[in-house]
Write a structure and sequence with these properties.
Structural class: mainly beta
Oligomer: single chain
Helix content: under 10%
Radius of gyration: 14 Å
Largest sheet: 7 strands, antiparallel
Number of strands: 11
Strand order of the largest sheet: 8-5-10-3-2-1-11
Distance between the termini: 22 Å
Number of helices: 2
């Protein structure tokens, strides 16, 4: 695979869902990344992804723009929800349940990183998954 070190969300097909979309800009199949994957998540106002986890993987969520409510469960399984906005980094420990909701009136954009790579592949199995063309 040729190196593809500079990737914009418009350069890749996106994963579309009823709640928004994920454009993987770093992944083994995009540019040969070996130990992690990541990309840009776009959430329209009032939308978000429900409580879920990524077995065996950690996640970083960085808020680029917009405001929302981020939930990450404690080690005891207690939901901890915080208001988040631009510049906030959220760490989701391995296999921990979490959810994100755009509670603002404008689109919310996030950058997410999964380590190790792989949890994003399971998204293709969700019932509302659709592959969106580049651009």
């Amino acid at each position: 695979m040729p190196e593809n070190n500079f990737v914009y969300p418009r350069d890749v097909e996106a994963f579309g869902f009823d709640w928004g979309k994920l454009s993987l800009t770093v992944a083994p199949e995009v540019n040969g990344a070996k130990t992690f994957s990541g990309g840009v998540v776009d959430l329209p106002p009032g939308q978000g992804h429900t409580r879920h986890n990524h077995p065996g993987a950690e996640e970083i969520i960085f808020v680029i723009s917009g405001h929302g409510q981020q939930m990450v469960e404690t080690p005891d399984g207690v939901p901890e929800t915080r208001e988040v906005g631009p510049g906030c980094t959220i760490f989701v420990p391995e296999s921990r349940f979490h959810s994100t909701l755009n509670s603002g009136s404008v689109p919310m954009q996030l950058f997410v990183v999964y380590s190790p790579a792989g949890p994003e592949r399971l998204l293709r199995e969700l019932p509302d998954f659709r592959l969106l063309p580049k651009g």
